[in-house]
Amino acid sequence: MLIGVPKEIKNNEYRVGITPSGVREVISAGHQVLVEHNAGESIGLTDSLYQQAGAEIVSAASEIYTRADMIVKVKEPQVQERAMLRAGQILFTYLHLAPDPQQTKDLIESNAICFAYETVTDDHGGLPLLAPMSEVAGRMAIQVAAHALEKTQGGMGILMGGVPGVAPAKVVVLGGGVVGINAARMAMGMGADVTVVDRSLARLKQLDDQYGPQLKTLYATKNMIERAVIRADVIIGAVLVPGANAPKLITREMLTQLKQSAVLVDVAIDQGGCFETSHATTHENPTFVEQGIIHYCVANMPGGAARTSTFALTNATLPFVLELANKGAKKALADNQHLRQGLNIYHGMVTYKAVAEAQGYEFVSPQSCLN
C-alpha cells in the first residue's frame, strides 16, 4: 500500500503523522511511504531522515492526496485538504466530528473511509490512540495554567506551589480520566492544592489508593462541582464522552461565582468544550477573558510539545497503520473490532453513533458495511 504523510497546516501545528522510525517499520513490511517536503522539519525530523528510512519526499500535499491509498495525519483535515480526498481513500487521523458538522458533511461527500484516532478502542475499554495526546495535554494544562496565573499574563499573580507561609493555588480537575490524572500529577508535583472531581467511584477510589491524602477527591454532582469551582484558582476541564460533544459542566451563569481572574483550561475543546463560554483558540492567541475569567481553549494543545507528541502518537498508531496497510480497510475492519469502533465515515455513511446523533444523520453500523 502507498501511504501518504502530508505536512500539517492547522494554525501552529508542528506534529507529523509518523516518525522516520515508523516509516522504516512500514517500509520493512513491504509498503511505500510519501512524505511532504519539510513535514517534520520544525521538530528536527528532516527530509533526509525520512529519506534514510526509505520514504519518498514530495513537494506538494496535492501529490500525496492524488497518489496515496492511505493518508496518515495528526489533526482533522482542513477545508482544502478535505477537497482533495478521493473515494475509497483511507484517512487515519484525529477527527473530532461531533461539534464540526461542516467537516462531517465534507467527509461524507468525499466517499473516503475515515477513521478517528479518538474512537479506536482496546481490550480494556480504553482509547489507546487518544491516550498519548491526553497524557501530553493533561500535563501541559498545568504548565499553561501556571503561566496564566501570573500577573503579567492577566492572572491573580499566584504561584502554583506557593512558598513557605503562603498557600499554593487551588486546582480543581473535572474528570479523572487520562487527562485528569496527568493534570493532577503535574499540579501536585508543583505543590498545588489539588482536587479531582469524577462520577466514577471506582476511579476515585483508585486515585485515593494511589495518592492518599495528597489528592482530594469529590463525587461529581452539580452541587459538588459548584462548591469546588467557586474556591478554585485553576479549573481544568478534562471530561470526555468518546466521540460525542463534551457536557457543559460550567455554565455562563456560574462564571459570576468564580474568583476574578481564575483560569479555566478546557482540554475538551476538541469535542466542543466542557465550559459553556469556551470557544477554540490557537497557540498564537491562546487565551481570552469572559466575565473576568481567563479561558485557555487551544484546540491542538499537544502541538505545543510537538516533538514529544509526535513520537508518543506514532508509538500508539503504528500497529494500526500496519494492520490497515497489510490487510486493506475491509479486511482490517472485519478482523479488528477496535478499528471498527474507530470508523466514523464509510463511503458516505456515518458509522459512529455519537456523531450521527449529534448531527441528525442516520447511523449505519460499521459491521453492516462489511456485508
Description of the molecule:
This protein has 371 residues and is of the alpha/beta class. It folds into two domains: 2-127 and 306-370, NAD(P)-binding Rossmann-like Domain (Rossmann fold); 131-304, NAD(P)-binding Rossmann-like Domain (Rossmann fold, 3-Layer(aba) Sandwich), CATH 3.40.50. It has twelve helices and 15 strands. Strand 14 (343-346) and strand 15 (349-350) form a beta hairpin. Helix 1 packs parallel to helix 2 (47-53). The two termini are 23 Å apart.
In terms of topology, how is this protein built?
Elements: E1 2-5, H1 20-28, E2 32-36, H2 47-53, E3 56-58, H3 61-67, E4 70-72, H4 79-82, E5 90-93, H5 101-110, E6 113-116, H6 131-148, E7 170-174, H7 178-189, E8 193-198, H8 201-211, E9 215-219, H9 222-229, E10 234-237, E11 263-266, E12 287-290, E13 293-296, H10 306-335, H11 337-342, E14 343-346, E15 349-350, H12 353-359
Parallel strand pairs: 1-2, 1-4, 2-3, 4-5, 5-6, 7-8, 7-10, 8-9, 10-11, 11-13
Antiparallel strand pairs: 6-14, 12-13, 14-15
Helix pairs in contact: 1-2, 6-7
> How does the major sheet shape up?
8 strands, mixed
Annotated CATH topology of the largest domain: Rossmann fold
Neighbour order of strands in the largest sheet: 3-2-1-4-5-6-14-15
* N-to-C span: 23 Å
Principal-axes shape call: globular
Which percent bin holds the helix content?
A: 25-40%
Low-confidence stretches: none
The computed structural class is alpha/beta
CATH class of the largest domain: Alpha Beta
Summed over residues and divided by their number, the pLDDT gives a mean of 96
What CATH architecture label of the largest domain applies? Answer: 3-Layer(aba) Sandwich
Beta-strand segment tally: 15
